[in-house]
Amino acid sequence: MRLLTHNMLSSNIKGVINGFPLRIEVEKVVEKPVDFNPDFLKNMFSKIEWKPLVDASRTMGYAELPEEADASMLDSHDFLQRFHHALLELHLEEGALFCPETNRRFPVNKGIPNMLLHEDEV
Amino acid sequence: MKLKQLESLLGEIQQFSNPKIQLEQYPTGPHIASRMLYTAENSFGDVSGKVVADLGCGCGTLGAAAAILGAEHVTGIDIDPDSLEIASSNAEYLEFEMDLVLCDVKNLGWRGQVVDTIVMNPPFGTRRKGADMEFLSAALKHASKAVYSLHKTSTRDHIKRAAVRDYGAESAEVLCELRYDVPQLYKFHKRKEVDIAVDLWRFVPRSHRENDV
After folding, report:
1. Long-range Cβ pairs for the range B205-208 (8 Å, 24+)
2. What is the pLDDT of residues A4-55, one digit of tens each?
3. Which of B70, B138, B166, B207 is the right S-S partner for B48, CB 3.0 to 4.6 Å?
4. If one looks up domain B3-212 in CATH, what number appears?
5. B110: contact with A, CB 8 A cutoff
6. Chain A residues inside the 8 Å CB shell of B107
7. Where in chain B are the domains?
8. Domains of chain A, with CATH numbers?
9. How many beta-carbon pairs below 8 A join chains A and B?
10. Which chain B residues touch A19 with a CB distance below 8 Å?
């Protein structure tokens, strides 16, 4: 699972008010290089919640994103490459996601988070 | 890429080995899948460079088609772990990237509308009433640009009404009518192959971005 997917996933348990972002527990991270597409990144920037992306990438062992970012940084090639790497090239292969409100653990195996709910959580 | 090329690539995708009837698992054939995504890309520019999600992705045929046509990111959602395992090996075999999430589409916890385009071949709702509507409702909530979906032609009026009135679609248009070959997968199928008329729909979700400006 890429951090782009992580950036849109939130806890879907009944009664949870703010289930975003899910906290990441890392057992294994893999990196898979993909083509760099600056136009896509510029377009995505406004849709991404920055702080959760910074925290998630740090948890995954990549600490090169600035704490805060604004649209003016999109002119920097260096910034875009870091953004690209964090958003699209880091994959959580094994580990878990934690709901920030309930601490419910959603396991991630072979890169696939299991977000299926138990009967009493729907 | 030519339509024929896309269709033949998709023909290499491995389909369900033990389809589950309660989930109405029917493979999306390469003929339909290639036409669906080819239209989305070439007539509307909804695929290349976009964030695409495939709801009820099964073995990942539609998501694969999106990735092959240049989607920047594809996420496939399915409730069945066995299907996702096949989808995952398909992605490896055809060398495309697709994030997979094990989740019930009706309980999808997604923040806002990060996804541009949703493609799906939902259950027709014949085994469990309303299953098709759960998919449509979720899709129109989470796509910002367009939703492409297949529904039985016999339900056309109902789909249009529900999409526009209940799920906030700005527009709902049938792009074409296709023949869906349902092979004899299940014991209750009496004939060898059944030909079902299905509509390929394009829905445009109402813009939710007014507040951002």
Report:
1. B205/B113, B205/B140, B205/B141, B205/B143, B205/B144, B205/B145, B205/B146, B205/B147, B205/B168, B205/B169, B205/B170, B206/B168, B206/B169, B206/B170, B207/B144, B207/B170, B208/B112, B208/B113, B208/B144
2. 999 999 998 998 988 999 999 999 999 999 999 999 999 999 999 999 999 9
3. B70
4. 3.40.50.150
5. yes
6. 12, 115, 117, 122
7. 3-212
8. 3-110 (2.20.25.10)
9. 77
10. 109
